[in-house]
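Journal club side-thread
Mid-discussion, someone asked how the predicted structure for our own chain would compare to the paper's figures. Pasting it here so we can look after the session.
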Amino acid sequence: MGSSVNGATSRRKGNSAEVEVCHALERAGWQAITSRAARGGYQSGEDIITNLPVSIEVKNHAKVELSAWWKQAQEQAGEKPPIVVHKRRGHAKAENWWVTLDLDTFLQIVGPPDERR
């Protein structure tokens, strides 16, 4: 019974973090919904469905495991470049959390420099 309780607690923490990220995106003017909400409780693929040009993986863990999180984000990203949003201890608002991405993904997001410079 212990592992199912821990699993349920972990899912609740994850869902809560995903909802907070959605709220932060909405406060910034973007559309966002958790994939669980969009799929009636079933989650698969990216954690947040949004009109941002990225695929978002959300993590709420005390122990930071960037390599594993990044691998998961890449596997679930589909056609969009992946990012990982991870909760920053002591900060309730997602606007203050960390975002992790590799340089290639960053360059995909920002695109080429403006030729008019």
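Post-session note: The first strand starts at residue 32 and ends at 34.
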